[in-house]
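Researcher: We plan to redesign the surface later, but first we want a full-length starting point. Tokens attached.
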């Protein structure tokens, strides 16, 4: 098997990448006493654990995170800067209508007067919102959703690289959420499957070469509703232990999202409610098993298939009940059992021919009101910059903070402010976390300098409670020495997709879409610190305390099977035994813990290893820090079965 890494005795025929949607690293430690032997503990006890894995990009959302897991690249590279963005060039009614169906808007409180002579707010647009997986040039196989594809994703990911190297390899993505399945699996995936609750069941789109037989599974979906039609506490965490691992007093119950009740038992009276419970994770793992069986994944010795699985229910109940809730505690120990069943199945079927990596697309912050219940001194809250509901026509129909921003900006720009003016007079046209998009038509009408408007908007935002940092896009793009906060935002920044002014919130502050629930999306510990775990074929067990990041997942698995996958911030983690790496490290008189391994690429009897040593230098003006010191590049050849260094190179960046 010349394309595989040097010491692989039995090459993996199946690579499984699991993403747990919304999982903070601390869950692994907090709920550890209640894990089974073969779920998370399979990674923690007999796999490789990276307890210091953090996302490096600022906008920690589902679309960007899954694209990063699948590609090893930052959002500025793979292009998925958010779940949505605003395309200023094209007014597309279909995209607007999709947006209004999908999003929670600020609804102006009554009484509002509708004026038939005035256009609706978005009708003064010159562009459209874009959902990260939206593609109306393809159609969904069933259900209510529009066609979806990885059209907006830029460049190749792990799956694409594996398919290029191994022509028979198959790559498939599975999740309840379309964007999770699609963006991990990449452009050349054979199929991505996601869930449509109106069906109910899994669907795909005409972008893919799916096998319709997989949809036989859908008949079993309603059967996942428990006989009680309720989500009850499982008892896996004893009642007496719950107060120690949660913060969920009765006073918190009304502060959660109460759509399915603020505490146990939660009624499961619909398929939607089912997906907001741990049973949604079981459906996902069982469907993934069904796909393995139907598609005979992992059956070609010497050719690795790649299966990406994202469990999404964790994010649904995580948003509703928050990280300190009994629901999240019970949800994760139940997830552990579902994971155990899935991994048992993989092990039974593939033995040591399977390798599994697990991470999360982002963490989550506490529900601010519950955080304050726990500690009244906490500085936290909600920043409500929601776009208005479809029927809005005037500036007064905006959320109060948006009205205030318009007013303050008008004062700074010395132009008249009228709350009753039509929406086309607003300076800020559109909000999508973490960007504000300006109304450039209005700025031209008033003959204002757009840079000055951006700068004044940035100044207004810096006075908004909860806003930590704000930048104009021009500032970010031309900054000579970007600091850490700027580098994080630059990793989530793409000209043409990002807005005119971008913001980061303080810890414990969240973008809000209502008055309860919580969310993620900030460059703060709670949102960036996630699990990064490996188990299976070739994995060297251990707890690796070096700094790591989910970009490394694709790069590391890629190096293992002899392909290079990843971007500027990804490295090969020293998870897999590698003679090539050992020879290079011995030459450097270094251990894997002291260096940053950037590349281990093996091509037949020839290999390249790149290792960085020394302290990273400050970033050159106008660029991101590449986190490099001195680069050592080794070219090795296998001669009579032994790897020999044939050239050494030193570089600096
Ligand atoms: Zn997510």
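Model: Full-length starting sequence:
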């Amino acid at each position: 098997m010349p394309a595989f890494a040097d010491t692989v005795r039995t090459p993996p025929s199946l690579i499984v990448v699991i993403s747990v949607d919304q999982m903070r690293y601390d869950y692994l430690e907090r709920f550890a006493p209640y894990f089974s032997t073969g779920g998370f503990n399979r990674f923690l006890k007999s796999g490789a654990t990276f307890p210091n894995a953090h996302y490096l990009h600022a906008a920690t959302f589902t679309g960007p995170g899954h694209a990063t897991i699948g590609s090893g690249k930052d959002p500025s590279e793979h292009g998925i800067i958010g779940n949505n963005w605003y395309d200023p060039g094209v007014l597309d009614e279909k995209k607007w209508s999709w947006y209004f169906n999908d999003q929670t808007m600020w609804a102006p409180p009554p009484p509002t007067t509708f004026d038939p002579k005035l256009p609706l707010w978005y009708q003064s647009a010159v562009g459209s919102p874009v959902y990260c997986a939206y593609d109306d040039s393809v159609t969904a196989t069933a259900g209510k959703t529009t066609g979806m594809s990885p059209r907006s994703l830029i460049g190749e990911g792990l799956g694409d690289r594996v398919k290029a190297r191994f022509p028979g390899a198959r790559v498939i993505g599975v999740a309840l959420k379309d964007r999770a399945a699609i963006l991990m699996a990449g452009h050349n995936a054979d199929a991505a499957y996601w869930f449509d609750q109106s069906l109910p069941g899994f669907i795909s789109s005409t972008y893919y070469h799916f096998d319709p037989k997989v949809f036989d599974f859908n008949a079993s979906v309603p059967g996942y509703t428990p006989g009680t039609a309720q989500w009850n506490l499982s008892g896996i965490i004893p009642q007496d232990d719950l107060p120690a691992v949660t913060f969920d007093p009765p006073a918190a119950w009304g502060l959660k999202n109460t759509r399915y009740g603020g505490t146990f038992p939660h009624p499961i009276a619909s398929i939607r409610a089912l997906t907001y419970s741990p049973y949604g994770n079981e459906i996902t793992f069982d469907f993934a098993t069904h796909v393995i069986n139907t598609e005979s994944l992992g059956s070609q010795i010497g050719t690795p298939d790649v299966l990406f699985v994202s469990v999404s229910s964790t994010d649904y109940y995580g948003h509703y009940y928050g990280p300190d809730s009994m629901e999240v505690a019970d949800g994760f120990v139940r997830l552990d059992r579902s994971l155990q069943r899935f991994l048992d199945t993989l092990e039974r079927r593939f033995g040591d021919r399977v390798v599994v990596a697990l991470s999360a697309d982002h963490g989550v912050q506490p529900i601010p009101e519950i955080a304050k219940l726990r500690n009244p001194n906490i500085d936290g809250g909600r920043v409500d910059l929601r776009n208005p509901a479809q029927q809005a026509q005037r500036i007064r129909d905006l959320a109060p903070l948006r009205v205030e921003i318009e007013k303050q900006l008008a004062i700074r720009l010395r132009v008249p402010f009228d709350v009753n003016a039509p929406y086309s007079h607003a300076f800020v046209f559109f909000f999508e976390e973490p960007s504000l998009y300006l109304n450039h038509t209005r700025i031209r009408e008033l003959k204002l300098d757009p840079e000055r408007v951006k700068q004044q908007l940035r100044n207004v935002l810096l006075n908004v409670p909860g806003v930590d940092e704000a930048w104009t896009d021009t500032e970010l793009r031309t900054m000579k020495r970007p600091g850490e906060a700027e580098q994080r935002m630059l990793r989530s920044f793409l000209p043409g997709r990002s807005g005119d002014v971008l913001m980061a919130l303080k810890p414990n502050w969240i973008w809000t879409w209502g008055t309860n629930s919580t969310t993620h999306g900030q460059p703060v510990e709670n949102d960036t610190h996630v699990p990064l775990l490996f188990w299976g074929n070739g994995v060297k067990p251990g707890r690796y305390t070096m700094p790591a990041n989910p970009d490394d997942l694709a790069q590391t698995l890629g190096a293992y099977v002899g392909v290079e996958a990843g971007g500027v911030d990804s490295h090969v983690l020293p998870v897999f035994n590698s003679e090539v790496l050992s020879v290079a490290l011995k030459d450097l008189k270094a251990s894997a813990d002291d260096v940053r391994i950037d590349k281990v690429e093996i091509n037949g009897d020839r290999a390249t290893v790149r290792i960085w040593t020394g302290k990273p230098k400050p970033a050159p003006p106008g660029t991101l820090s590449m986190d490099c010191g001195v680069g050592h590049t080794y070219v090795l050849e296998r001669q009579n079965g032994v790897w020999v260094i044939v050239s050494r190179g030193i570089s600096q960046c």
